[in-house]
Design a protein that fits this description.
Strand content: under 5%
Distance between the termini: 72 Å
Order of helices and strands: HEEHHHHHHHHH
Helix content: 55-70%
Shape: elongated
Radius of gyration: 31 Å
Structural class: mainly alpha
Strand order of the largest sheet: 1-2
Number of helices: 10
Oligomer: single chain
Length: 238
């Protein structure tokens, strides 16, 4: 029994616990051990013989085999497949690398849903950031007019805004990276019980590029409109 469930119910090792099988049949068993399940996906482990009559598919989805030191993995896999061909033609034995590849392929089947959610949320955040930066830049029209009256050229003002945009983008990247790293490290520790930071380089670089793009668009796009009026007219208008 999961340690969390056992503590919540007040069950101790040696107690008789009651539960429902997957088909709804009530059952009871003696609690023999508790284990830590940080993911919360496996609350109860039952003997296979007791569970099989109460499930629709009485077959294990996978069976893990531990090899003795010095055993040849290829020979063992071949021998298991030969034995399985007679009793379970659809079953197949694989080595560790092949099994991990199959698990990764199954886990990535719904990645498009996660990607779609990330794109929607990221797009909304990007548009909101651009709107804020555009409004901030347009509100500085009097400042730009004063700079032009003082002798600054359009190119110089645009260059200073370019630096501001890069500073804003860098600040956003650093802050976002720190927040994401703290959050993902916590999830990594929860799932693996070790300090582990999941990191995907290409995806991270795309996010960083989008952050800089949003900062530069929001800062530089409205500058032409902000400096359309003559400097003196711009000062008087504000």
């Amino acid at each position: 029994m999961s340690q969390i469930i056992a503590e919540d119910k007040g069950w101790r090792i040696g107690d008789t616990v009651t539960f429902l099988y997957p088909d709804g049949t009530p059952g009871d068993a003696v609690l023999s051990t508790t284990y830590v399940d940080p993911m919360g996906v496996s609350d109860t482990l039952l003997p296979l013989d007791a569970l099989t009559p109460h499930v629709l598919e009485p077959f294990a989805s996978a069976v893990y085999v531990a090899l003795e030191p010095g055993s040849d993995t290829g020979e063992v896999v071949t021998a298991i497949n030969e034995a399985l061909s007679a009793v379970a033609p659809g079953a197949q034995a694989t080595d560790r690398e092949q099994h991990l590849a199959q698990v990764a392929a199954q886990a990535s089947g719904d990645n498009w849903i996660i990607l779609m959610v990330v794109v929607i949320l990221g797009g909304y955040a990007g548009v909101s950031a651009i709107n804020v930066l555009v409004a901030s830049t347009m509100s500085r029209r009097r400042e730009f007019a004063l700079l032009r009256l003082a002798g600054a050229r359009r190119r110089q003002i645009t260059g200073s805004l370019l630096i501001e945009g890069l500073v804003i983008g860098t600040t956003a990247v650093i802050a976002g990276t720190a927040i994401a790293a703290a959050t993902m490290t916590g999830y990594g520790y929860l799932l693996t019980d070790t300090v582990w930071l999941p990191f995907v380089g290409p995806t991270y670089l795309v996010i960083v590029g989008c952050a800089y793009l949003a900062a530069l668009i929001g800062t530089l796009a409205p500058i032409r409109t902000a400096m359309t009026a003559a400097p003196l007219a711009g000062v008087r208008a504000w």
